[in-house]
Each structure stands twice: as C-alpha cells, then as structure tokens.
Amino acid sequence: MAPLTAARSYDGPECPRCGGYVDLDRMVAGEHRCPTCGGVFLATPFKPPVLRERVGSMAEAGPEGAVPCARHPGNAAVDNCSRCGVFMCNLCRIEIEGQELCPGCFDRLTGQGVLSGAQTRIRDYRGLALSFGVFGLLFSCFGLITGPITLFFVAQAVRQKRRWNEEGGTPALVIAGLLGVAQIALGIFFIVIIFTPLFGTGFGT
Amino acid sequence: MSEPLRQPRRYLGRAQTLSERVRTYWTDEALEVDLADNYEIRRRRVFFDEILLVTLHTMRGFLISVLPFFLALLFLVMGLAASDEPGAQTVFWIVAAVFAAFAVGAALSPVWVVTVYGKRTRARMHFRLRQAKAREIYAEICRAAADAQRALAYRLTQEIPQPPPPLPLSESEPPPG
Known about the structure:
By secondary structure, chain A is an alpha+beta fold. Helix content of chain A is about 40%, strand content about 10%. Chain B has helices at about 65-80, 85-110, 130-160; strands at about 10-15, 20-25, 30-35, 40-45, 55-60, 110-115, 120-130.
C-alpha cells in the first residue's frame, strides 16, 4: 500500500488553508482572502527567473574550435568529468559537492551512497534512538538488550548529525542516551532481583 | 574518496499531522525538508531561487488535544467506576479535569503556520503560541528567496552572449559621420 503522504501530489502554490486555487500572477505581497474558503493569510509571491542553459553546437564552433560531447556528438563539450574524464556538454554536466560529473558517474556514485547531497532516503537514527529509549523503558526487564541497542542508535544519530553538519537537536539525543543508560541499569537491577534468591547470597536471605 | 563537509544546516521547525511528520532545516541554498516515514527520512529541498510563494496563517491545533481528551475521558470513567471509594474518585476526577483543561487549552491555542511553495515541493512549519518566531522565519525566508532570485537573475544577464566586436575599419573606407 502506498504511504498516506504520497497520496496527494504537489501541484504548486495553493491556499495554505484549504488547498484551493490561487492566482499567482495577480497576487501581490500582503494579506489575502482565499476565494474558496474565505480564510485570510499573509503571502509574498516571487517570480523566479527561468534558468536557461546555453548549449554550444559543433556546427557553430567547427571541428577545430571545440570537442564533441561524448553523449551528444552535435554539442560542443564544455568540461571533463572529474571522475572518468569524459567530455561533456552543458546538458550533461552535473555540479555537485565541488565536482563536475557526467550522468553515468553521478548515477554510480549516488547508487553507492557516496554523494550525501544527492541522497533522498536516509535511515532515521534519531527517531530510532528516541523510540527505543521510550519503549525500551516500558520493557526494562529486557534492559540489558534494549539499552545497548538504544545507545547504538544514539551513537549512529550523533555520527549522522556530524556528517550533516547539523546545528541543534542535541537535547533529544541526550534524553535518548540517558534512557538507554537507565534501561541498562534497570535490566541489571531486575537480574539481581531475580537471581539473588535463587543463589541465596542476596540481601533477602 | 573522502566526503566533503556539508554546509551547516539549522533546524527551523516542524509540522506534524495525522499523515506526516516533517522537520525543516535551513541551508545556504535551500530549505531541507525531512519527511519521517517509518524510521526512514525522505529528503526534499526547496531551493531559494525556485520559491514561488511564502505564506503565513493561523489555525487551531486540534490534533494535540486528542490524546489528553481521551485520557480525560478515561479518568472520568474510572472516577465514575470508583464511586465506592470517595478518596480515589476525587483523585480520578482531579486528574480528568487537568487533562480536560489541557485538551481545551491545546485545541483553542493558535498555531502559526509558515508554508513555502517551491517549483517541485513545499515546506511547512508549525509554531504553537510563537507568533514572533513564525514571523521571523517568514521574513527570513522571504529575504533569502529575494536575494537568491536577484543573484540568479543577475548571473543570467551576465551569461547572455555579448554581440561580437565591430570589425576594424579598412583604410579605404571613410570614417563614419
């Protein structure tokens, strides 16, 4: 089953209250009343410039004036791929994380997960750490299992946070870490409580 | 291949509905929208130079009041069931009243919503009882979008190919004018 979030596709700007149609061309910055729902909202419209890439053709430059693109022989190459060195035109050139890549290398590096900026699906270690922290505490008799798992997810979340160069979000991880430690402590406590009477060496004998 | 350090990203706000949990971050070139989906983050970006519309409005956040409402109902029923124990009944009713008050307060408190519409996706942030913060974020995004789009427009005008220089005049040709 498709996730609920994918049920409604994005169709561009709309009324933020009801999702009704708004006429961007006639809109000016300020307060607006939606013609559909009558709701009032503050809005600032923008007209972003249209990006047009100029692609030089081999016919213009001549055989000695330019090198053909490896994928589009009719287009003049403007650069080499930083990874494989293939000639590429303006259509093929992909600039990402300080590199200029051809589409083939971009696909390969994205598939290998090397280009973090191109990743769109990532494991949510922060959410996992918090969930294991809270739910693990409810089943803290198994704290010796759930506690280390929580701490592992906290460590992964901290690594992820550093890799993304992210500011903020530390208190949640500190809470998750403390919950993990509390689970381990409770797990040890339960084991002591259970096994002490069996061996007859505890406080109750 | 060593991974280059990413540009810093700053947490802006989140939006939580029945169908989605979204956290929005600020980076130098875009708003990063992290959509939590079963312990997996689906990341989208609204680039500042592609922003079409930024809006700010208020709404009532009924969602957060659902849990306290049901807890209030639960303690009310428990209070009714414990009619034989007046002490316990009083405690249950006090707890039910606290949850009910919280549910009503949460349902009536205004939530300020900042929505940013890009060409391909949108970002949405909810700020409960924090109007100043919502307005600050709204203004900051509008400013960044205007700056980025002005810079892009300038860059595009610079990239327009200039007409070729005039050919040198031949000696036989009389000077113009």
